[in-house]
Amino acid sequence: MKRLTIFWSIVVKDMRTYYLKPPNISWGLLFPLAWTGMFFIRSGSGLESVMALLPGVAAISVLFGTTSMLAVTVTFEKKNRSFDRLLLAPIPLELLMLAKTGGAIFFGVVNALAPMAMAAFLVDLSGVAWGTFFGVIFLVAVASAFLGLFIAVAVSEVFEAQTFSNFFRFPMLFLCGLFFPVAKLPVVLQPFSYMLPLTYGVDALRGAIPDAGGGNLLPLGLDVAVLGLFCAALFTASLWNVRRKWIA
Question: How far apart are CA 231 and CA 103, in angstroms?
Fold first, then answer.
């Protein structure tokens, strides 16, 4: 019970201190929507393309919502030694790191609801498989949060965390089937697409949202399994780095 109280206190503290601040909300929500608007203007697409774009917009809303602050805040807390005090808390390191990512995961899931709410005014969402949608969005949020954690523990300066984050995020905009299906990418780039976790999240979301670019290419179970493997690998690598670099 004491561990649960500590876990929840860390999550609430991070939500109040970081994730509910206007800059984080604007970066996590407005950037994906602005990118989508540019796509509409460039392609001349109308409302008939809304359903096809929803999986990609929801996915990048989660990605930017989770990583825009997490990678920076963990690095900043380590730099000013406030993270060292958290390491003294009487909870396992695994639970501590889950608490540090818990706020980002929650914020990422909430971010995914923004484009869905806007789309509800434009198109009929009654055919969405909401159970599958929220399950996949949660996995995407977890994978994105663990990616942000991996970045944070791999660098030592805040500006390095920002640069390293963009090194992963911006290629995903083009390679993960967010706006263009992976099958339509050049053959030489397709293998790189399947090396990125967001590819499987977007593919699963295409299966959950009707008329979303022809549906998913891979079986839903495979998408979920690969996302789970990415989550486990990123979290394990992050813990290994924390123990090697941050704990004497």
Answer: 16
